[in-house]
Amino acid sequence: MSQHRTVAVIVGSLRKDSVTRKVARALEKLTPDLKFTEIEIGNLQPFNQDLEATPTLEWVKFREQVKATDALLFATPEYNRSVPGVLKNAIDVGSRPYGSSVWDGKPGAVISVSPGGVGGFGANHHLRQSLVFLNVPALPVEAYIGNAFSLFDAEGELINDATADFLKSYGEAFSLWIEKILADEKVAA
Length: 189
Ligand code: FNR
What we know:
Elements: E1 6-11, H1 19-30, E2 35-38, H2 57-67, E3 71-77, H3 85-95, E4 108-113, H4 121-133, E5 144-145, H5 161-188
Parallel strand pairs: 1-2, 1-3, 3-4, 4-5
Helix pairs in contact: 1-5
């Protein structure tokens, strides 16, 4: 079982009242086995390969923060059937310099969130495509949280029992997934 593994939470929305962040926080509350920490991505300069030899302080800090954690939770809205640019930028910043990607081998999970009924399916799978390339083994449980504005009260508390049940089981599956992937990597090392 989990030994309070640490999870870097990457939220693909910069919006103050982001419903995606509310979902990530609800998952955190329902998964006491794991220690979640959101890592800021809104301060990352747009990736520019010219800066690889002289990375900005924000890039360096971001990379260190991700590196220090055991696992990754990506919670994303959908923008134009894909991931928001800020999230893609964070993924690109973490992936370089070539050969030093901070994502490499970390167990991950992907949740997409939308006020619409489709639940951000397009963003979810565009993100999964990048994670395959980055060698992030992503939990093979699908999580598309649709109609998301109706799931929370004015204080941001989850008020939908079915979603709470789903997130609880998702968090349990993620904990087990993290242990499995880290154990497999230990054997392979
Ligand atoms: C959206 N939105 C949206 N929703 C969706 O389900 N599919 C989509 O393709 C898009 N496209 C899109 C593009 C842009 C530029 C914006 C600003 C919005 C709506 C989006 O789901 C909604 O704004 C959410 O509230 C965003 O999530 P947060 O910020 O509340 O976490």
